[in-house]
Amino acid sequence: MSLLVTGSIAIDSVKSPYGQANDVLGGSAVYFSFAASLFTPVRLVGVVGEDFPQAFRDILIDRGLDLTGLETRTGSRTFRWRGSYTGDMNEATTLETRLNVLGEAGPKIPDAFADSRFVFLANTHPTLQRDLLGQLHGPELVVCDTMNLWINTERDSLIKTFGLVDGVVVNDTEARALTGQMNLVLAGRVILGWGPRFVVIKKGEHGVMLVTDESIVALPAYPTTEVRDPTGAGDSFAGGMMGYLARQGNCSEAHLRSALARGTVCASFAIEGFSLEGIRSVRPADVEVRLATYRRIVHFE
Amino acid sequence: MSLLVTGSIAIDSVKSPYGQANDVLGGSAVYFSFAASLFTPVRLVGVVGEDFPQAFRDILIDRGLDLTGLETRTGSRTFRWRGSYTGDMNEATTLETRLNVLGEAGPKIPDAFADSRFVFLANTHPTLQRDLLGQLHGPELVVCDTMNLWINTERDSLIKTFGLVDGVVVNDTEARALTGQMNLVLAGRVILGWGPRFVVIKKGEHGVMLVTDESIVALPAYPTTEVRDPTGAGDSFAGGMMGYLARQGNCSEAHLRSALARGTVCASFAIEGFSLEGIRSVRPADVEVRLATYRRIVHFE
């Protein structure tokens, strides 16, 4: 089934205890797309500025992404983020954000993409998320992400967006800030009360939790020793999850469970290198191999 | 197989967002014993003071614990701990510790217990842990716990103890402090280098990790919504783990995996009530029911 993602396309500069990378390709939609495309074709919708390097565009083209929805805006500059990781590297310290084109009008969904069946609205202003959703013709599964900024400044609008989607992906800090509930299962249930059918709570190195009306799923992160740059881990998780669901063309609870495991494996690849290094060289067969290892890691009689 | 535990027996006062309990029965050896006795008979070794209430002794007797190794020391007072939990309740704030009898000479292992096959040395001075170990006749499996105090003040002695045991149980903060490694798999491997065959790293609400030379196991915590008092969660985990291993009479990797799951379930019961309320009313059949739920929680195709 067709999978569409809207989100940021960024030029990142990242420092971690394992090195640094300056002016590299990043952004939520990019990480998402690289993970999702291990499972299914991906339609990318986003805006970059005139300064977006051809080399980066080539990276996206080489991955086989459908770039019909990639707008290059004249007179604008690409979104830039600079951050660093220290200690357990579970959370980035943002050193600089230049919104640039992300502070202007949002992207448009091309007519050719309006029939997309599976949709991921990566983090952006919740009003824009609803606007994008309105440009689609009755998609089968819509999942959205968000960030602390909107929780703090646009809470009502965000809750309105949650009321229009099937699933929400948030991290643990966001789930707690949003609901005032410290217990993540209870936080998930508060979010369910706003409309979505499922909530996925990402806990970084501690794994992920799925909360629905009927059940709870909890999976640990893949315990890799090769954490070099956690940037994009959450987006790669979401990409693996949505890519798998779109390929299966099904979003039953059983499929959601399987999708969480695929997302977990994709995130584990993404953090092994700076920028897209970790996920870029991965092939579908590598996902299967690591998935088999992951099964053993969580197995008990 | 016979299971022996040495550790603290305490009078606790605990406050959490869900209430408080003053002067209640606690201590590492007590929580451990209550969980372990769901699987196998338990030999308890520890020291209390003259002030130890008969009502508390009756609770231990009612549980069917073998109290041959419980010394009531004349002229001494029982160890007391007062603490509180806030926020995500993942870590206690210690408000007061009165070592009392724990600051004096350690307990002795009764001759009748010297043949114990499975042994858990709960947190105490690492020199005392080795002294206790020396009183046993070639046990089959020895696992020890520790705490930040000994990591900071008795690191060399602690590493010496680790060289004499089969398994080490520590929490994530301790593993990092002890090894200087932020990555928990790498931290586990540093500890393996000191001698033990396996390391179990407890991550509180985030579950548990097992590191051996051959493999890594990661399991999430049981996602309960009923967290009232996390005191004793780690000790209940260890009790469930060791109780299961002793019952099976086997500590192969497959059995260790199964034991981690039993420990996880025991910990989830322990935190549902203050003091021993959570675990005390649990029957072996309740463990099986929750274990079946836990299997569904971590299941994916």
Account of the protein in words:
Two copies of one chain form a homodimer. By secondary structure, chain A is an alpha/beta fold. Chain A has eleven helices and 13 strands. Chain A has a nine-stranded mixed β-sheet with strand order 5-4-1-8-9-10-11-12-13, sandwiched between helices. Chain A has a four-stranded mixed β-sheet with strand order 3-2-6-7. The A-B interface holds A 87-89, 176, 182-186, 203, 206-207, 209, 215-221, 223-225, 227, 254, 257-258, 260-261, 296-301 and B 87-89, 176, 182-186, 203, 206-207, 209, 215-221, 223-225, 227, 254, 257-258, 260-261, 296-301.
Q: Uncertain runs of chain A with pLDDT below 50, 5 residues or more?
A: none
Physical arrangement of strands within the biggest beta sheet of chain A: 5-4-1-8-9-10-11-12-13
Tell me the total number of β-strands of chain A: 13
SSE run of chain A? EEEHEHEEEEHEHHEHHEEEHHHH
Radius of gyration of chain A (Å): 18 Å
Quote the average pLDDT of chain A.
Answer: 95
Helical residues, percent of chain A: 25-40%
Distance from first to last alpha carbon of chain A:
36 Å
Question: What oligomerization state is this entry in?
Answer: homodimer
Largest inter-chain interface? A-B, 35 and 35 residues
- Beta-strand proportion of chain A: 15-25%
Largest sheet: number of strands, sense, barrel closure of chain A: 9 strands, mixed
SS element count, helices of chain A: 11
- The best one-word shape of chain A is globular
Entry keywords:
301 residues; 13 strands; 11 helices; homodimer; globular; four-stranded mixed sheet; nine-stranded mixed sheet; alpha/beta
